[in-house]
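Journal club side-thread
Mid-discussion, someone asked how the predicted structure for our own chain would compare to the paper's figures. Pasting it here so we can look after the session.
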Amino acid sequence: MTHSVIHLIGIPFAISAGTGAGVLALLSWEIFRNSPFGTAIAILSLGMVALTIYHATLLVTGPEPLALHVLRSTVNTTIAVFLGLLILRHRQLHRNRSSGDLS
C-alpha cells in the first residue's frame, strides 16, 4: 500500500505525542498516587499507551475493517462512561467536604 507524505510524517508525531502524554500521565500518577483519583490516572495512562499503539498501527496499515470501527466505538464509549463516573465522584467528594466544613 502506498502512503502519502502526511501519513509518513504523522507516524513519528503520533508516537512522540503519545509517549509524551504517557510520561506526563505517569508523572501525574506519581503525584496523586494516594488520592482517590490515583487509580483513575493510572488506568488512563495505560489507556493512552494502548491508544498510541492503536493509532500508530492504523497509520501503518491503512483503512480500517469493520471490526476496528466497532472496537473504537466500544473504547470511546467506555472512556466516556469512565470520565463521567470520575466527574460524579469528584462532585460527591466536593459536596461531602463542603457539608463537613459548615458543621
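Post-session note: DSSP finds three helices and no strands in the chain.
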